[in-house]
Amino acid sequence: MRIFTRYNVKLLLPQFLRKKLIRKKGVWNFSDAFLVLDILSAKIYEFYIYFLCTLWYTIKNTNKGCVLVKPKYNRILLKLSGEALAGNKQMGLSYDVITSFGKAIKKTVDAGVEVGIVVGGGNFWRGRSSGAMDRTRADHIGMLATAMNALAVADGLENCGLEVRVQTAISMPQVAEPYIRNRAMRHFEKGRVVIFGCGTGNPFFSTDTAAALRAAEIEADIFFKATMVDGVYDKDPHKFSDAVKYDELSFDEILSKGLKVMDSTAAAMCKDNDIPIYVFDLADPENIYRACMGESVGTKVTNRK
Question: Is pTM beyond 0.85 here?
Answer without folding.
Answer: no
